[in-house]
Amino acid sequence: MEGDLSAQMVAGIDRFLRRELEQSVGARQKLWQRDFSSNEAYEKSVAGNRERFRKYIGVVDARVPVTALEYVSSTSTSAKAAETDGYTVYAVRWPVLAGVQGEGLFVQPKRTPVARVVVLPDADQTPEMLLGLAPGLPPEAQLARRLAEQGCQVIIPTLIDRQDTASGNALVGRFTNQPHREWIYRQAYEMGRHVIGYEVQKVLAAVDWFSSLNQGLGEGVVKPRIGVAGYAEGGLIALYSAAVDTRINATLVSGYFDARQKVWQEPIYRNVFALLQEFGDAEIASLVAPRSLVIEYSAVPKITGPPAPRDGRAGAAPGTWETPDFISVELEVQRARTLLAEPGRFAQAIRFVYGNEGTPVGPGSVPALQGFMTGLGWPARLNELAATGPVELRAGVDVAARQLRQVRELEAFTQELLRRSEKVRADRFWNKVRPTPTNDWGAARRPFQEDMWTEVIGRLPAPSQPANPRTRQIYDEPKWTGYEVVLEVWPDVFAWGYLLLPKDLQPGERRPVVVCQHGLEGVPEDTVTTDPKSSGFRYYNAFAAKLAERGFITFAPHNPYRGKDNFRVLQRKANPLKASLFSVILGQHERILDWLGEQPFVDPARIGFYGLSYGGKSAMRLPALLDRYALSICSADFNEWITKNVTVEGRYSYMFTGEYEMPEFNLGHTYNYAEMAMLIAPRPFMVERGHHDGVAPDEWVAYEFSKVRRHYTFLGIPERATIEYFNGPHSIHGVGTYDFLHQHLNWPKPR
Hints:
Largest sheet: 10 strands, mixed
Radius of gyration: 29 Å
Shape: elongated
Helix content: 25-40%
CATH superfamily of the largest domain: Alpha/Beta hydrolase fold, catalytic domain
Strand content: 15-25%
Number of strands: 21
CATH topology of the largest domain: Rossmann fold
Distance between the termini: 40 Å
């Protein structure tokens, strides 16, 4: 192999994940057991799928009961927004979650409603646009107005938009160009929630109210059916809402439905962990069946990326979206029908509306609306669009203030989840298994290891390729010889690193190994070079070479977090497969440990791990799950990790940086760094911390480590957990850590 092996590794992983994404379509069937014998039997057979879908999109919190909609008015603005001969429009809000409200417009017909419908705009459309109260949409695309004129009772929620005005915190002086949807997504994802799930909850809260109205009608009264209709981003929310709530009788999805194997190219706020392992759009549609679903092929708003970086605002994830090819949409619709094809009546629940020769129509074309109304039990011919629409009665409607309220409410709810997360983690972990000197902690932690690997990091199949080791000598130093090593892992995926062997190795001697892990954008050479002018030396201080001079065998693997978006997008491709970048890295390190353990000069029981920065992230995750690492040293990374990922109140937070691959789904309620260290126990664990390290303040580090030290003390092994502070920056210090390695890998210090 020649050239940039780092770039080749990232490219190979990319090919591997793309292939897995394409093959995910056929692999999904193993998680489905559909029973078509009756509607009730079908619902029972897919109940598990539906519950997992709710979990993946974060619809897991109990909603606040909705007894009534609240009019939104003030001393200067009336709640009444418009009135026609057929209906009245009000500004309203309704409770959803603790401190979170839906807000938008409510259309009350002046006769008994023929149906009750939630109409969802695209993220960059306002509720007013869908009624013609504000410019932006031609009358035929004013979906809420069309339904109001049919006699429907309508709620139009405000969606979180794609602007970035509220994405930041003036109190800490940090802002970003993340769209509001990404701003909420990032903090929510770490907490097992999602901007998608939050908006589904707003829809379902409206459905709660609609259902209560129907229940109040009494026996023998025809109850208006409940529907949900949406366009573009609103189409996504409409589809997902109907998939999780069977009270929704009819659904219209306009400008969203498609194959999702390229969801990684779309805006990051559509990234759903484990989605494509079980759910493409076709499978989600099958959760709507046998209820009515109309899919309308419409042109979508073209998204070329986030708002442009400016004035200190940067860090948003890339992501584009445009109208998909008709053939792609048609094939996904056909696949949905095939999933429901056993009894014809299930497949017939899906209607596909499009223009001549597959051209886009709508949103809200006559055939689509007719099909939607038929599903709502109102098959009458649609009324012609009224010559004049409603007129705005309010003066100075502040839609920006409404958007800000919606963003801040979800932000506050998520930050409250963060504040309470420590108790959640304690209840599921610390309080369940009490460490004592007499219990078998190695066995007690194994269910949690399995849970973390499978449900949080994501477990890929075991390495499948023969290792096919290839080596070449690249160093000849006075005390050690260095080799470049390549090992195969999966098709297109290999492990690569530098092996340093002390020259005083004796025949038959087995020595300890220290795996020396580089950080972000690093390469193995950075851990070896002694050139003070090199970019790597200032951080790594040649620790792989210095440890080899002390008689340790060292191995410096390459982890594929290099290449900026080239590697970050790997996380986007892995997440829908219920995997992550660390899923791949775990496979690479399994292969490395296999190979090292086979070498005649290695003691496989004495292989330690020592990583800096992103290598410190590796030091928390890899030894926590790979027991063959005999100890772990986390340098320049250990801190209150969940806070670092979620808080909007600290300058250290990843909420303000371009590292959009950092959030790990629901890590906040499962495994902070203290819990990961508990999975490393009873093996020795150490933290190396420079006082001037900008990763986090000392207080965060000390707070989280105190829980680790307590745990080791309860196990009766406090000497195995230690921390060294030094008056320095984000770098390898190599003093207390070297002593720690000599002690716990049982290798004598040099004289």
